[in-house]
Structure formats: structure tokens, C-alpha cells
Write a structure and sequence with these properties.
This protein has about 600 residues and is of the alpha+beta class. It has 19 helices and 12 strands. It is globular, with a radius of gyration of 24 Å.
Length: about 600
């Protein structure tokens, strides 16, 4: 059996395929921002990420799960390996890899940065969570903070001295942000007194960094009701003096840790602000626009959540694939000789089904997540405004799918990995049960699966009279047209085109309910609409991968590359035969606006 630390990072051959063959990220070097980069520098970043992931993160993945953080009433205790791994990540420049040179960054494309973090996620998603949160918080302050906030908070966050969080949910208001109670009272010096309680705050307390910068949603006294009255504040754990030195504690108090089924190395906290003295925060941007600003961070975080779910799916797939190749058990159904030796379980069709399901889900999801990350690069650096706007609109449309499809279906892939290992998979002697537990958070993290469905169907599909959906479909059709030139993939192209027409008809059939005010009925099956659209998006990603693979085989790929490219065609074939066929279930149910869930009374349950 191969060593676990060799299996728990992303397959480098597939990363190279996704980035350099499918997305052609080398072409970004034609843009001024990325002019110093070529395939050599981008590959070096991936090499470094994989080395750190294997040597520093994966090596304590199990220990971090079994020895989760604990609070003794005064401080949180975390195993020392977590800080050592994060310090190595920071020293290698990954906290600011995508930032400007003058901020200490490397100006790496976002797609490459995300691919590097996929390596860390697969190795130890619990420990890398602190960096993930800090990067998101730093990006928000960089986009909307004032000069003082950038000087006092952003710079030390990019340097890895300060870590960051986002504080949205409250005990009485999880996803219902309109009902938050945290208050912000103006002070004479222009700051605000913050008071309230925040729940489920990842990374909310630790000693891994010099300071923690909390991004807190609160309502200024007298603010409008609902989400229109929400503002955003920087609230440091320790106050920062004008010269950058640390001052006194800012009365952000840890009440307790939430103990989760997975993702255990990242502390998850209940925090009180201002309970035992004055807690001071600074307004970010304009009053009452906090949710707009936070959504910028949340949308980036949603791509990151999807990528994290994908990485865990890949980790489980790689481990169970290796196990299946090396575990002898049973004989072929047509072998009636009990004296013959057992065969590796990968020889059994049902095991290959479980492996193909994992491969199709995780590698399809990886393609979608990196495609979205590449859109972020286009959104910020495309050569003209029309191209930037196109990327922005396409990314807006895809984000609910990028977050939620991998979270649901790479979790399913982890279930299949356990099944491949059989009884062993259910034990803690093997890592696949932990991958499943770690991944179970992601359908909830950064907006539940149901919320993403309502966002997609209730907002994104309807925005600008359906312009976003039309753009998505026209973009898919460009790839369908390109694929039809290749005999090995033209059948997939035709199948996807037929699916698109059916999805368009279904969406049109649903929309009168939205236009005439039957919003509850229109949204009753929004989650199923998200599942359906996610399957279409993954089918698109597999068509793109299959086309590149077919072209490579046509050009004479040899050796190990032959099997690699044929594996892409096999996974595409599996997804179209076994998964895209599920549209036959979703489409009629959606088109008829099936009302069962809406009409079921609460007291019938």
C-alpha cells in the first residue's frame, strides 16, 4: 500500500492537465500583471505547495482529528503541529501569493493559487482553514477598507502575523442575517462600541498568530430593519496602536468551543463582544452596506468551500483506488475454481463503478472550481471591460454551483471510498472515514445547499431578464460546437445540447410562477434545480476535458499519458451515462412545479 502522505495530495498530473492543458493559464503571462510568470514559475509554486502539504500538513491530519482543540477556561490549546504547518505556508509566501508585489505578494494567478490550496486542503483541511479565512478577510479589507485599516490590519494579515475571521451568524439567527442583534454604537472618536454574540465562528480564538481581526456584521443604533441595516466592522482581538504595536485586549471573549464531527483542527467558537468592557470596532466602507461587502468575501469563500470539498473527494478517491489495486478478495463471476487465487478488488465491476463515480465527481468538480478561479483572473485582468464584465456575470451565475455541487457530490464520493474499503473503511485505521466527516461540513459551510438553490433560482436565473443564464448556455454551446469536430466526443456534445434545450424549456415553464407572485411555489424545489444545473455544469466540464484528451490521443500521446487521457474519456462516459441521465427525474418534477413539500403542513411531520 502506498504511503498515505503520497496519496493525500492532489494528483500532480491532473493539476497540470487542468491548469495548462484545459485552462491554458500560461496565456495569462501576456497580461501585465502576470508578465513575470511562465510555466516554470507556476509549476514551481505547485511543487512547493505539494511538498509543504505532504511534509507539514498531512503528517498531523490524523493527530489533529483525534486531539482537537480544547479550552481550559483561559486559553485554547491546539497541537503544535498546526502552527508549524501554517508557519511554513506563510514563510513560502502563500498567504499573499495572489497579491501585488508591493504588498509582499507574488502576483500569482488566482487559479494557480487555488490549485496550490487544493493541495493543502486534501492533506489537512482542518489546519489550513486558518489561512483560508485570513486570505478572505484580507481580500475584503483590501477591497473596501480605508487607509488606516489597510495599514493596521491588512499588512500584518498578508504577512501572516494576524489571522482573520468573518462573524455573521448568531445563536438565534444562523443563516437569517436579517435578525442579527449585534449592535454598533458610535463613539466620539469615529469608532464604534460593539456588543453582541456571534456563533459558529471558525478560527475565532487561538494563539497561532499575534492577533485576530474579526470582520463583524452589526447594526448601528437606529439602522433600518432587516438586511438593509447591516454594517461591517473590523474588530481586533487585541487593539492595534497607531504605530502598529499591539495594545490591550479588546473585550472579545471566548464563551466556548463547538465540537464538530470533522474539520476539527480549526477552532469553532461562540464569541461575546463587549460583555466585560468596551469592545471597539471600525466601520468598513459605508454604513448599512455590510452585507454587500461581506458577500464579496463570501463569494470567494464559496469557491474555496467547493474546492475544499473537491479536494477531500479527490483524497478519498486516490486512497480507495490504491486500496482497490492492492486488496485481493473474491474471484471473477465466471471463475468457478475455488482453488484459484483471489483477484484485486478493482477487477470487480461494482468496485470500478464506485471508483468511476468518485473520479467523475471529484475531477469534474476540480475542473469547475478552477474554471471559476480562472474567471476571477479574467474579472480583474482581462484586457477590456467587456471581457471583464462577461467573466463577472458568468462567475456570478456559476458560484452557487461551484460551492454546492462539490459539497454534495464529493461527499457522496467519500461515501463510495468507504464502501470500497468495506469494513476497514468504517474504522479509524484508515483515513477515508475522516475525509467523510471533514467533508460533511461543506454542504452547510458558507450558505447551505438549500440557500444556494434559492440564490440560483430566485436571484441569478431571474437577474437582468435571464441574461446570466443565457450567457452560461451560450458559453457551454461554444464548447459543444468545438467538441463536435471530434468523433470520440461528438456523442457527448449532442447529449449535452439536448440536455440544455430541455433545461431551457423547464426554466421557461417555471418562470410564470415567479412573475405572478407565487414565489413560494417557484422556489419550493430550488434545491433540485441547483442539483440539476450542477449536473449540467459538470457535464460541460467533462466535455471540455474529454475534448482535450481526445485531441491529445489523436496527436499520438504515448506511455502513461495514453492511460491518463483514456481515463478522462472513461470518466466522461460514466458521467453522461449514469449521472446526466438523472435529468429525466428532475426535469418533469421541476416543470410541473411539484407542490408536495409546500403543501405538507408542519403538524403532518
Amino acid at each position: 500500500m502506498a504511503a498515505e502522505n503520497q496519496l493525500s495530495t492532489i494528483d500532480r498530473r491532473d493539476l497540470d492537465f487542468q491548469l495548462f492543458e484545459l485552462l491554458n493559464v500560461e496565456a495569462l503571462s501576456a497580461r501585465l500583471r502576470y508578465a513575470d510568470h511562465d510555466r516554470g514559475t507556476l509549476s514551481a509554486a505547485l511543487d512547493t505547495a505539494q511538498t509543504i502539504a505532504a511534509q507539514y500538513f498531512q503528517t498531523h491530519n490524523r493527530k489533529g482529528d483525534q486531539t482537537e482543540p480544547h479550552f481550559d477556561g483561559e486559553r485554547v490549546h491546539i497541537i503544535p503541529e498546526v502552527k508549524r504547518a501554517l508557519d511554513r505556508l506563510i514563510e513560502a509566501g502563500f498567504m499573499a501569493a495572489h497579491r501585488d508585489y508591493d504588498e509582499g505578494g507574488q502576483q500569482l494567478p488566482w487559479a494557480v493559487t487555488q490549485a496550490c490550496f487544493a493541495c493543502f486542503d486534501a492533506a489537512n483541511i482542518g489546519s489550513v482553514g486558518y489561512a483560508f479565512l485570513t486570505i478572505g478577510a484580507a481580500n475584503l479589507i483590501g477591497a473596501f477598507g480605508n487607509a488606516a485599516q489597510k495599514e493596521l490590519y491588512l499588512k500584518p494579515m498578508l504577512a501572516g502575523r494576524f489571522f482573520g475571521t468573518m462573524c455573521l451568524s448568531e445563536p438565534q439567527a444562523g443563516s437569517g442575517l436579517a435578525d442579527i442583534r449585534t449592535r454598533a454604537t458610535p463613539l466620539a472618536d469615529g469608532n464604534y462600541r460593539i456588543s453582541g454574540t456571534k456563533m459558529w465562528i471558525s478560527g475565532g480564538e487561538h494563539d497561532l498568530s499575534e492577533n485576530i481581526v474579526h470582520l463583524v456584521l452589526a447594526k448601528i443604533d437606529g439602522a433600518p430593519a432587516g438586511v438593509r441595516g447591516i454594517s461591517l466592522f473590523t474588530v481586533p482581538k487585541r487593539r492595534v496602536n497607531p504605530d502598529g504595536s499591539l495594545g490591550e485586549r479588546n473585550n472579545v471573549q471566548l464563551v466556548g468551543l463547538n465540537h464538530k464531527m470533522g474539520y476539527r483542527s480549526t477552532t469553532n467558537t461562540l464569541l461575546n463582544f463587549g460583555e466585560n468592557g468596551e469592545c471597539v470596532g471600525q466601520l468598513v466602507g459605508e454604513p448599512h452596506r455590510g452585507l454587500d461587502y461581506m458577500f464579496m468575501m463570501m463569494n470567494e469563500a464559496r469557491i474555496g468551500v467547493g474546492l475544499g470539498a473537491t479536494s477531500l473527494g479527490i483524497a478519498g478517491y486516490r486512497y480507495s483506488l490504491d486500496y482497490a489495486k492492492n486488496r485481493p478478495q473474491g474471484r471473477a463471476p465466471d471463475n468457478k475454481n475455488p482453488a484459484s487465487p483471489p483477484v484485486p478488488i478493482i477487477q470487480h465491476a461494482d468496485i470500478r463503478r464506485l471508483l468511476l463515480a468518485q473520479k467523475a465527481a471529484s475531477e469534474g468538480a476540480l475542473a469547475l472550481c478552477l474554471y471559476a478561479a480562472n474567471l476571477v483572473d479574467d474579472e480583474h485582468t482581462a484586457p477590456d471591460e467587456a471581457a471583464r464584465q462577461r467573466a463577472r456575470q458568468l462567475l456570478d451565475m456559476l458560484t452557487p454551483m461551484v460551492k454546492s455541487w462539490p459539497s454534495e457530490y464529493c461527499l457522496e464520493a467519500n461515501k463510495h471510498a468507504i464502501q470500497v474499503l468495506g469494513g476497514y473503511g468504517y474504522t479509524r485505521d484508515y483515513p477515508v472515514e475522516q475525509y467523510y466527516r471533514d467533508n460533511r461540513l461543506n454542504p452547510i459551510h458558507e450558505g447551505t445547499h438549500g440557500i444556494q438553490g434559492m440564490d440560483l433560482l430566485g436571484r441569478k436565473v431571474l437577474m437582468r431578464d435571464g441574461a446570466g443564464l443565457a450567457l452560461l448556455f451560450s458559453t457551454i454551446r461554444e464548447d459543444i460546437a468545438a467538441a463536435r469536430a471530434l468523433p470520440d466526443v461528438t456523442g457527448f456534445a449532442d447529449t449535452l445540447e439536448a440536455a440544455l434545450r430541455r433545461v431551457e424549456d423547464c426554466t421557461l415553464a417555471m418562470q410564470p410562477a415567479a412573475r405572478d407572485g407565487r414565489i413560494a411555489l417557484y422556489l419550493a424545489n430550488a434545491t433540485l434545480y441547483l442539483d440539476m444545473m450542477g449536473h449540467v455544469a459538470i457535464a460541460w466540464m467533462w466535455l471540455r476535458q474529454a475534448r482535450v484528451a481526445a485531441l491529445a490521443l489523436q496527436a499520438g500521446a504515448a506511455g502513461a499519458d495514453t492511460a491518463f487521457y483514456k481515463s478522462k474519456l472513461a470518466a466522461c462516459r460514466y458521467f453522461y451515462a449514469y449521472e446526466l441521465a438523472k435529468l429525466d427525474y428532475w426535469l418533469p418534477l421541476l416543470a410541473r412545479l411539484e407542490p408536495t413539500t409546500l403543501e405538507t403542513e408542519p403538524d403532518w411531520l
